[in-house]
Amino acid sequence: MARCDDSEPEVIEQHPEEDTEDKPAPVSPSDPEGPSGSQSSHRLLAYSDALISIIATVMILPVAHTPVESYEVLSLQVLLSTKIGVYLMTFLIVSMAWAAHSRLFQVVVRIDDYLALFNLVCMMLITFLPYTFSLMAAFPEHVLGILLFCGCVMVIGLVQTVMVLYAFSRPHLLHPQLQDRPDLSHYQHHILRVILRVPLMCLLASVTAAVCFQLSYVLLAIVIFLPYISAARCGSGAGSWAGGGVPEELLLYSFLPHEPLSKERLEAFSDGVYAIVATLLILDICEDNVPDPSLVSQRFNGSLVLALRSYGPEYLAYFGSFATVGLLWFVHHSLFLHVTKVTRLMGLLNTFSLAFVGGLPLAYQLTHEFPTHSQNELEAIQISCIIIFFAGLFQLCIWVVALHHQQECLLPRVRYGGSEHLLMLAKLSLYPCVALGTFLLTCVLSQFSAPIFHLMELTVPLAFLLLRLLLRLLLALLRLLLLQLPSSEEGSTLLYTAVDS
Amino acid sequence: MARCDDSEPEVIEQHPEEDTEDKPAPVSPSDPEGPSGSQSSHRLLAYSDALISIIATVMILPVAHTPVESYEVLSLQVLLSTKIGVYLMTFLIVSMAWAAHSRLFQVVVRIDDYLALFNLVCMMLITFLPYTFSLMAAFPEHVLGILLFCGCVMVIGLVQTVMVLYAFSRPHLLHPQLQDRPDLSHYQHHILRVILRVPLMCLLASVTAAVCFQLSYVLLAIVIFLPYISAARCGSGAGSWAGGGVPEELLLYSFLPHEPLSKERLEAFSDGVYAIVATLLILDICEDNVPDPSLVSQRFNGSLVLALRSYGPEYLAYFGSFATVGLLWFVHHSLFLHVTKVTRLMGLLNTFSLAFVGGLPLAYQLTHEFPTHSQNELEAIQISCIIIFFAGLFQLCIWVVALHHQQECLLPRVRYGGSEHLLMLAKLSLYPCVALGTFLLTCVLSQFSAPIFHLMELTVPLAFLLLRLLLRLLLALLRLLLLQLPSSEEGSTLLYTAVDS
């Protein structure tokens, strides 16, 4: 039976359109079974993606479960912003670990039992990263927090080193393109250097922590953020460097120059994050909101309806956040259906978008928790709008970046002038526009903020259902307006035919 | 870029080895884009699997978070067994919903925007099923619980009906084999009848609930369990019916006679369950076990090490459960790597295995929570052993069933006499044997139950690493023993060569 990684051979190649049939490939990565019990890595990666996406969003739970009532306003704001900061940082750290894992398995495309077991060890340590980081954040002046975090990162690095050494000693596990390269050992050294840089920095940080812990935080910040900065630079400059030689510095954080991310893994990771975020609130509801039978008979005279009615806000928050997260997933899905290559900058923007999506359930919960017409409610609604706005905006940015290199990155039908270009633009800009509009409306009509917000929650799913129709109406209107000016008739015809197919 | 569902065209076919190139296929399901904006359904299914696997395990949370200290022994046992019962039932219900979803998308192999949005509605309702069921379980005599549960199921059925009607009105969304069938409308009626049976039964149950709620529970039990019984019968009888005509009753719960489950989706669902179960405890640790700075300075004289030491049992429980769940995933992965076709009985056994895996973190948590040498600790350890035993045993059963139809279901190298037959047997029987052994040992040496259990936790990962070596040693021993009896020499040579390759 054909296995499911046909896209992998193209991952490392610079020209996906190139004909690859003339190259001899000893074992295709898509065979379920190769020599000496080597296996397709597809399921291992799917399981790893599921684990990492759950762990990336784990620190939103302490934020969501902060008892809002038991603090004063000022201390609550400090507490919440600390927790949100920890959430965002752990999300970035785990995403970095995911990117490193993804990079490793672009080189090692087949696995065997030992690699699978080593990978489980690696996963166990990655799932522990958020906890060690939150310890570090809670006790910034204790050396122990830094030591634990650095220790975790160092052991992950060592396990990955062992995996690389093991895989290079059995070349049939490597990417087919690499197996024939004469400079295999040189390449192995390069990869080991890239992998070991992070643990070495952490070792340095944990040593300096004994002397001056501020310095070790600077070192850790470099470890955490440099890959992101490098990704952004790499992505923004991809066009200009495509022709000539590759600068040495680009190779610092990647195994191959201009290596794209694995689209399949990016989708799997995003799916995991969207799924866990969409169900965050129902997890709480299932746990806390099944009323106690004795309580119902005491307080509600045995009326289950009354008891459940008191949970109304929780249900509303759940349905609202599920619908919003689901529709953001739908937009993401529609976009990546037409993406053929994912640059590192696109991956970075995707991470930012996901980080905001993770905050959505919390914001919705707050929205429905406060008494109506209170200042708190207004603020919660505005925060929800801001989160939706940024989550949607970063998705839009992915598309803008992809359009910049549309020949490599996008399918023809969504490129400029393609038959679905405008539809895609409408899908991607619907949420940012609506969120911005709602935000501005609630600023002006603060009395009606809750009805406005609920109206938005109701109309957006409908808008997605009727998007093609709405778009056609809008374009017909535009055409009518433009027809008044005969000079631009040609342009409007183009617009009209664009959505007509 | 090639998409990722090459295995799907084979899902419905009865003979995967058959050459399919002579059949005209208007649109291959693996194209990312077809006519009129139809899309590959791969990612939609991956997202749905992730959502459903999270929801299937959700009701273990109330079990895990029951405050053990605040109840007396007897009432605690009653409370826990009720909650565990609710967990098992919701797991089966959600698995049934997953199977129905999987069946639907074996017929509808391509999607468009509308189907994706309908599917999100369907998912939202499925994620609400566990809550309505637990309401029903908490208030068995209230009509409202039954009504909510039945209402949920009915709306899911209606949405699926709409999806079927929509897909059959656009035949390019259907499986290529169906598109050319002359009796398409007959087939559509058959599918609608299968789908609508469940909502109709629920309607009947909610009507009878007003008269006699016991009767409505009987009806619901039939709705929930009949598919499982039918699956078991279908699986056990698959051999005898393969030749002749297909009995009408088999078609009651399936769209196609002897339809196998989609292996890809079964793997995705299992991966999701294993991933969420493996991380259940770290979610709690991240939320509850970051000590409060003020508490540390008060109670532990500012010593973070002492504060963290008090959480020792939680860490141990996490590492233990992560390793066990991870290794059970590893066994599952190894098994399904060699499975070519999944019968419905195998899917049923897989569901049972997953249901036990879901209870593991809880058992491990209890194991490390009680004081050493207490009766509670012994019981918790024995329960852990029983859960591991059954989780492993059902995995072994999957293999036994697959061996029964090994020509269709397994790759040659794990069939009887295949080069990895014994290795697979060793992998699958390691956990059941070790768990049984530990259980028996703790019965005899109840004083040393905790050390025995920890020893097991440590040795099993090592045993998996050294499994090939251990197996070869064992066989060498066997060979030595058997060589004493010259008549069986041939058999022992066979054994020896079996693992030597």
From TrEMBL, chains A, B:
Belongs to the TMEM175 family. Keywords: Ion channel, Ion transport, Membrane, Potassium, Potassium channel, Potassium transport, Transmembrane, Transmembrane helix, Transport. It is a multi-pass membrane protein. It holds the Pfam family TMEM175. It catalyses: H(+)(in) = H(+)(out); K(+)(in) = K(+)(out). This is Endosomal/lysosomal proton channel TMEM175. PANTHER family: ENDOSOMAL/LYSOSOMAL POTASSIUM CHANNEL TMEM175, ENDOSOMAL_LYSOSOMAL PROTON CHANNEL TMEM175. The keyword rRNA-binding does not apply. Residues 1-17 have a biased composition (Basic and acidic residues). GO terms for molecular function: potassium channel activity; proton channel activity. InterPro entries: TMEM175-like.
